[in-house]
């Protein structure tokens, strides 16, 4: 993989993706065996938005490679509160670390920040834009569960604001996949994402109900309605609690359906589903460690 920064899933070729997933599989088989890979390397965590999985799995990954983290900490205790710009902040941090993982509420922030640093910058989520390292762990999970070619995947929920959806949809165009998008009218895929998918020749269909497509799916990727991104709480309330699944919903699904979710969930997946073999979302979250180990290993 020859990239300075990981900003968007659009920059990743099939070859890049397979290289990361293959390396991740090696780390997954024996995570403790990589401690001598990058001793002394420091990953800076600059998270301007809350995170559990992305932040902690990046920290675990660099430590499992023999390195360590430095953490900007909560924004309210950083000099961001004094008015420091993102450009200045990342320029300062690159003097302290060998790579930067950045999460920021503004779409396009990772692209902008990457123009100010020479160390690898990893987009750990930029607003409603992209979340490419999540996509790589999603693809790793899909490859393990269903394979990455000749599959039918349903992506359901908040397709408008869900950055994991935008990244995953782009990345899947590298493979022989049929993509079905299921959402309320107000949360359909943004026009620019639909345009890109069309340009990439993706097989895409949109639905307003899961029922009509569920029996055809190999993978169902459920997402949270991103309440924090709605400009108007009333608009959120109109769609809250819709597009959820429970055991009854799954009656018409294939027995081998793989159910995924980037997490955190609110009410999209009934906890009774957690006990089914189909539920893969906690394993998906665990896959963040070997996949982020592979990404860091290849960039550092
Ligand atoms: N999936 C994901 O990005 O989770 P966090 O927000 O907890 O990092």
Task: Please name the defining characteristics of this protein.
single chain; 300 residues; alpha/beta; Rossmann fold; 2 domains; five-stranded parallel β-sheet; four-stranded parallel β-sheet; 10 helices; 9 strands; binds phosphoric acid mono(formamide)ester; amino acid binding; Asp_carbamoyltransf_Asp/Orn-bd; aspartate carbamoyltransferase activity; EC 2.1.3.2; transferase
Report on this model:
The chain is α/β, with parallel strands linked by helices and 300 residues long. The strands form 2 sheets. A 5-stranded parallel sheet has the order 7-6-5-8-9, with helices on one face. Helix 4 (109-114) links the parallel strand 3 and strand 4 (121-126). The chain folds into 2 domains: 9-130 and 292-299, Aspartate/ornithine carbamoyltransferase (Rossmann fold, 3-Layer(aba) Sandwich), CATH 3.40.50; 132-286, Rossmann fold. It is built from 10 helices and 9 strands. The model has no long low-confidence stretch (mean pLDDT 96). 33% of the residues lie in helices and 15% in strands. The site of phosphoric acid mono(formamide)ester (CP) has 10 residues, from helix 2. One of its GO terms (molecular function) is amino acid binding. Residues 5-144 form the Aspartate/ornithine carbamoyltransferase carbamoyl-P binding domain.
In short:
This protein has 300 residues and is an alpha/beta fold. It has ten helices and nine strands.
